[in-house]
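Supplementary Methods, section 5.1.

A reviewer requested that the exact input to the structure prediction be made available. We therefore reproduce it here, unchanged from the version used in the analyses.
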Amino acid sequence: MQIATDTELITFQGWILRVRPSPNPKRLMVLIHGWTGDENSMWVFTRGLPSDYWIVAPRAPYAGEPSGYSWRPHQPETSGRHSLETLKPASESLLSLVDAYSSSVGIDAKQFDLMGFSQGAAMVNVMALLHPTRIHKMAVLAGFVPLGTEEIIARRPLEGKQVFVAHGTKDQMVPVERARVSNELLERAGAKVTYCEDEVGHKVSVTCLRALESYFSS
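The structure derived from this sequence is encoded token-by-token as follows.
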């Protein structure tokens, strides 16, 4: 696991955060790790991001199984079937964290960017669907749209919003067919999806990583 050397680990209002401050911050990026990950998991995706990003990677609030952390309580009977209902509490808490933290360091976070992997990517989708005016750019990496979002999607809350999605055709954790269906749902919600698909497993390919960096640099 790669941890950026220019980051610092802090505790803020009960959250564990790994933060990369920027000397000239113009925008805030929030990294949302996947199931059993932590605040160190997402930094491999940030190497090519512009230096004017102030980046925050929070540790999810629930214990993961068998280790790490999760954005919902452990629910073995619903393994793999994440829903809006199960992820909404953490998404609301995360939005409150963003507001409090950005205020404490003097960053304008009326709109901010999100990047999530796997379960964290599902969280990105939930936050964007529930609070579309707060999210500027969003990246959904090896993720999916959770169940129970149909009524929200029908209202087209993501009208005109640019969304980057990356997925592997050999992903056995989140099958690529699920990602393709999720893309259709995001487009039905009004999003303009940039989709990068490559022959890898539950990860982001080098080609898609370059496309991700280009998306957030433009």
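The chain has one domain: 8-217. These observations are discussed further in the main text.
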